[in-house]
Amino acid sequence: MSKVLVLLSGGMDSAVVLGKVVNAYGAENVVALNMFYGQRHTREIECAKDIAKHYDVKLMEMDISSAFAGISSALLSHSSIEIEDDQDKNKVGSTYVPGRNSIFLSIAAGIADSIGAEFVYYGAHADDHSGYPDCTTAFVEKMTEALIEGTDNGVRIQAPFVKYHKSQIVKDGIAIGVPFEMTHSCYRGEYPACGTCPTCQLRLEAFKEAGQIDPINYKGDFDEEDSDSRD
Amino acid sequence: MSKVLVLLSGGMDSAVVLGKVVNAYGAENVVALNMFYGQRHTREIECAKDIAKHYDVKLMEMDISSAFAGISSALLSHSSIEIEDDQDKNKVGSTYVPGRNSIFLSIAAGIADSIGAEFVYYGAHADDHSGYPDCTTAFVEKMTEALIEGTDNGVRIQAPFVKYHKSQIVKDGIAIGVPFEMTHSCYRGEYPACGTCPTCQLRLEAFKEAGQIDPINYKGDFDEEDSDSRD
Questions:
Q1: Domain limits, chain B
Q2: What is the ipTM of this complex?
């Protein structure tokens, strides 16, 4: 069986993708790829290591922050843009990183083409808030076409959750035993998680909608019920 | 007028693209982007600096070689694949760098989206030998669609030579005074150029077909007529 690449950020969406891919292809055929791109914190990377270890898959770690030196986003440590709790849902938020998913997918496609992997999986989903243009069905379809055309082996992107809401990802993850306690989402990189940044809000809503308890710790009131779950 | 990004490798094709873009938009609106991606030599980078200085445009230089650590190609210094003089024209050659143009264009699109540039120019052309899948009209069209979709401002790729043969690029460059003596093509990074690697062969043929003399120096017999042109 050919190898499969999975973009593994350390967040919950890509952890569920990895769980599903390992079930489908077998851990020995899966390579996880984590890229540090200059974000403000490295907690996600530690989570990616834990998750890859949990699933017993090879993890490729790369520091590609130099490629983002000319790119502006509140998520990047070199940028002076602030992360705001309340983003205008009608426009692209400050946490949008221009070109990020195209860059990630292109690098992954290059590696896949080099090692003979047919698929690159990533965890874009329908609730990627702030209107990220590189998380939509249309983008995934067009980028897939471009990379099939632009690689020798016709590498294909697979984004199994692109039409899913995040609560469905929680349900799917729970069903297959994804270790959500190992994942990180908070944009501020705080631990316990801040609970107020856009991605903490989205995660909390998703678990609530799914009727599940998020096992990670949150600051203040959020962590009363599960403060020792990650110890 | 909005800014325009030009991928500037230091080779002859992108130098002609830059010359045309500067004529069309004015040097003050043009940013050249040179990316070191782990190739075996850095002579191209010195050429890119000379060319950018010649045209008085801002040059962004980036070392993104870490992004190519998992990619295999004869052009990459970490790879053990050899550059061969005679490549089978029916299959993709050893000098193909999987994902390279997708990665370059994605990074450029991210920067363009960050600085409000509408266009990213690059010098793919019809003679990109060895059947590079990321230099074709189909790839350019599909990647353009993907990046328009995946960026906030709908950044567009422009590949003005994608249907041109290299000899036409020579003619166009001569017509607008492109400093071909400042450009580098040899895959082996040799100076004088080896004259035998696939890209030296292609360059020599293009100048011959265009009825022009290539002003750079070549090893052995090639440089008899113009050995002092770059001194």
A1: 4-177
A2: 0.90
